[in-house]
Amino acid sequence: FAPTHTLRRPNLRLHSTADNEVDCLVIGGGISGSTLAHNLHRSGVNMLLTEARDYLGGNVKSRKEDGFIWEEGPNSFATQPSIVRIAHELNIDDQLVFADESLPPWVHHNGKLHPLPKGKGGKGPKGQLELVFGSNGVLKFGLLGDLLSIPGTIRAGIGAFLGHPKAPEGKDETIREWVTRTLGEEVFLRCIDPFVSGVYAGDPETLSMKAALGKIARIEKYSYDIEWNKFGAIFYGGLARQVELTKERKADPPDPSWVDFEYGNPGSFKEGLSTLPNAISEGLGQPVGVPDFVSGSKVRLQWKITSLQSDSNGGYLATYDTPEGEKTVKAKTVVSTAPAHALSEVIRPVLPKVSSLLESSRKVRQQKGIYHPPVYAVTVAYPKKAFKDVELANHFGPLRDLPGFGSLNPRTEGVRTLGTLWSSSLFPGRCPKDYNLLLNYIGGSRDVGIADLSVEEVINEVDKGCRQVLLKEDAPKPKVLGAKLWPTAIPQYEIGHLELMEELEREEKNTPGLWICGNYRSGVAFPDCVTFGYDHAKVVKDFLQK
Ligand SMILES: Cc1cc2nc3c(=O)[nH]c(=O)nc-3n(C[C@H](O)[C@H](O)[C@H](O)COP(=O)(O)OP(=O)(O)OC[C@H]3O[C@@H](n4cnc5c(N)ncnc54)[C@H](O)[C@@H]3O)c2cc1C
Ligand SMILES: C=Cc1c2[nH]c(c1C)Cc1[nH]c(c(CCC(=O)O)c1C)Cc1[nH]c(c(C)c1CCC(=O)O)Cc1[nH]c(c(C)c1C=C)C2
């Protein structure tokens, strides 16, 4: 094929042949890229998966040591069919573990823990209105302990059952604006603010409601769509969403050969989430723990893409920095799943406009691009006897048993840690019996200074937070298992995000066979990434067949 070179890169090597030639090149071996590669390979596409790090999984990284199993990145997934399907295909379905569905998330308020409502089987809090969003966009109504005051409950009740002011025409509302308009300030501060921390580590004053919590934002539209409700009372929208969801699930039921699962139930694998990318790696011919070139493998580790250009045959030529020096790959189609901030320079030759749209997609705030704040994941263990001697509300039992998903700290409560996952309560075998294992997330959009602290300082902050919420005053120092900084952790779907994505889609039409994807486009949740891998493989296959 014809040599490719541009004036912008005078030092570019001229290639008479590429080191590899494939039908589909996948850039980035996180959960999005590896599941895509698995599906492409399975459907017979000649593909290559390239990853800058020395392992597959991206920010999914499970560790095991001294009788403890813990996660450095995501903790669990809300189970969806795409996960059960891929586990079945990879023959790791016997490794799947699901948490007890009735374990609620708790919110720390006024020195006490308050349970948030859970789906079926939960011991529903008693006393006040329960009004909480599930991430699938279903509003759960019921009774909510004493987390809300009586005026707060009345305000939420009016918004939920009677109606609320309409959104200003055409405005991209922030999460804070949307929630205070529909349900009031108190629901925002005590329920939604911590929920936003627990998903985006984000700032509800800059996140776009439609972009970040689109499924929930749509319940307002559903409520207006219902003829007999003219005031937007979102309860009816919640019902409409539930009906829609039930229809969707009936239309596409799980395969009878898959293991039984409950939609949305927190899940993982016995040895942690890395089980999935590890199984994909093995399936693609790259043994786990071997970062070097393996003959016949469909994976290249430690390959960092530096440039992507069009070639004269309508395909693409990718250049990589690798341990063996510069390498090139010629591909009919290319899918990038690398983070936006890693990609903007790479795609400048093919998509200059998208390149500048994504230009500042990193740690700097208030610029173009997609903001990715830093988050520390700190795993610590304390002996069970170090936990406060208190009984939890709603007959959940003693705090030391940690009967829950975890605890969230609203920004109003003076605890720096955003939230603590009660890892050893969720899945079996995560730590010795006399310990509780806690995964703490600290930092995020509202606390970017966390990245400037020393590891010891971060661990001290986490220990202090655990003492404020969970531990006795005389609790011993924790056993620290891991403290991992993700400098650009989770893409923030801020005001203007949807417009940016629309522009990306328009520009992408100029480069057939090249797709710029990732968790900043198809959703940040682990199951969203797995579903993307399944859906996008079909898009690539269709394109290649045409
Ligand atoms: C701390 C944390 C906790 C989370 N908790 C949860 C949770 O509990 N549940 C949940 O559902 N979701 C959670 N998430 C979100 C979810 O884990 C992520 O959205 C998901 O793992 C992203 O996968 P990805 O493949 O899209 O991106 P990534 O994992 O970022 O993968 C992108 C890959 O591209 C590679 N790359 C970068 N530059 C280049 C280059 N130049 N050349 C080649 N490769 C390159 C990177 O090394 C990386 O492996 C969490 C995320 C974080 C950070
Ligand atoms: C406090 C900080 C964080 C906690 N988790 C995350 C952060 C930043 C990251 C995260 N957690 C979830 C997602 C996916 C979102 C989705 O749409 O499903 C992300 C990006 C999952 C999640 N987190 C909470 C719930 C209820 C869920 C969905 C269920 C599941 O995946 O099993 C709430 C929650 N997050 C954290 C805590 C301590 C907590 C509740 C107590 C930590």
UniProtKB/TrEMBL annotation:
Pathway: Porphyrin-containing compound metabolism; protoporphyrin-IX biosynthesis; protoporphyrin-IX from protoporphyrinogen-IX: step 1/1. Its main location: mitochondrion. Keywords: FAD, Flavoprotein, Heme biosynthesis, Oxidoreductase, Porphyrin biosynthesis, Signal. It comes from the Eukaryota. Its EC number is 1.3.3.4. Binds 1 FAD per subunit. GO terms for molecular function: oxygen-dependent protoporphyrinogen oxidase activity. Transmembrane segments: none annotated. Its cofactor is FAD. It is an enzyme of class 1 (oxidoreductase). The keyword Transcription regulation does not apply. GO terms for biological process: protoporphyrinogen IX biosynthetic process. Residues 31-539 form the Amine oxidase domain. It is found in: Mitochondrion inner membrane. Catalyzes the 6-electron oxidation of protoporphyrinogen-IX to form protoporphyrin-IX. Belongs to the protoporphyrinogen/coproporphyrinogen oxidase family. Protoporphyrinogen oxidase subfamily. This is Protoporphyrinogen oxidase. It comes from Triparma laevis f. longispina.
